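Progress against Task 2.4 (sequence-to-structure conversion) is shown through the following example record, which the project officer requested during the mid-term review.
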Amino acid sequence: MNYRELMVSLFYPALWAYGPTARYMTPAESAALIEDSGIPDVPPELLSTTRTHSVRDAWPAGHAHSLPLVVLSPGYKKPRATLSSLAEDLASHGYVVAVVDHTYETLATSFPDGHVTGCASCDLPHDPAFWQKLEQGRAADVSFVLDALTGPRPKWRGAYLIDSSRIGMAGHSVGGASTLPAMVNEPRIRAGIDIDGDTDTPLLAPGLSRPFMFLSHQLTPTLCQPGVNTSWERDWQQLTGWKRWLEVAGTVHASFTDVGLVMDQLGIDIGASTPGERTQAITRAYVHAFFDQHLLGKQRPLLDTPSPLYPELAFCR
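Structure tokens generated for the chain above:
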């Protein structure tokens, strides 16, 4: 087989908020994530009985070529559903959001015909070359998704709403790290965010002049300590346009995704002193502000200086 299929969830503004809400993930995806997380005494199908806030198959709202598009890429092994909270928030502010499952890198991906793929890449040596190839593969996936949504024969009935001149990308962990190579390879992506992902593919000269933002969990007892995240420091020097480096106190790697929310609800301590719901509020606020400013041209002072509304967040650079 010389191809692979991708599953993508689309979130978007809808004409109405009535109807059945979408299932969070399938039973196979739920069981795989719960087993991999080592969560005790929880039914394996738990997350498949959870519902999102999104109405399934709702008719999209908006005028032709009026809505910006943001592509989201999840962390390694994590289902695309773990970025649902962020995707729903962006959609509620007028964005089309495409959340991608990168097949064979995810614990389980369920397809409409009923077959489920597992994490074939989990059996490979995870050396630096592996992560570089993974990031480049994800960059190619994102280009494919952009073609499928904005090309001459789009795969979504609401694709006519997308403004193809206003496209952004963000991701968590390796999904965030993949944003830089995706932007280097893909001029259609105007702005990008790396949420807590060490970058294995160096950003080489002439660098990147489009807007970029790093968002990190707390790495040391003192926020913004230099010499800790050396891959970001390396790439920071090659970012020649608008850029920010932010760090959130009291957080850990999983805090920025739905995993942090779920663990809090299950009473499981992941080592974060800032609650998952609060971290989600911070993440949503800054991600939304970033794309508003760089895709829609709306000035967002939140990105300029520390805010008393979010004292947990520090500007590192």
